[in-house]
Design a protein that fits this description.
2 strands, Glycosyltransferase_28, about 160 residues, globular, two-stranded parallel ribbon, UDP-glucuronosyl/UDP-glucosyltransferase, mainly alpha
Length: about 160
Amino acid sequence: MPVASPPALASEQLDNISYDSVQSNAGPESFSRRKEIIQTEHRKACLASVEEVFGNDPSIHSDFIVINFFALEGCHLAELFQVKCIIAAPYFLPYSAPSSFERQFKQSFPLLYKYFQEAPPNTVCWTDITHWMWALFMESWGLWRNDCLNLSPIPYTGHY
C-alpha cells in the first residue's frame, strides 16, 4: 500500500512542492521545520495505512510488511502489529552506521548489545544491526515509537 509523500529534497527545492501539510499560513518556515512537518505527516499516513490493513484483527502468523531501506517506518509498524518485516532492496545500502555507533550502543544498552552479539542463527544479530538496522535505533525514531506508537523508544526492548 503506497503512501503519498514528497521525495527527499534539497532546501532550495522545498519551495516548489505543494504538499498540503507543508503549506502554512504562518509565513515562511525554516527548512528543518518544514522537513519535520513532512516527516510527521508521512509517519501518520504510514500508520493509517497499516491500521487500514490490519485493523483491530489479531495478526496471523503469515502476515508481514515489506519495506525498502528508505521506508524504515515499516519496521516499527511491524513491531507494533506483531508481524514480520521483510526488506526488499535490490541495491546496495546507501548509507552506513556512524563510526561511533557500536561504542555508543554498547555503552547505552549493554544487555541489548550482548543479546545481539550472542543471538542464535536465523535471528537478528549484531551483524544485522551494524549492516543496516542501526538507523532504527536513532533518537528521531525513538520519539515516534514512544509518542505515537506507544512502543518503547528502543527496538527490541519490549512494549510498555
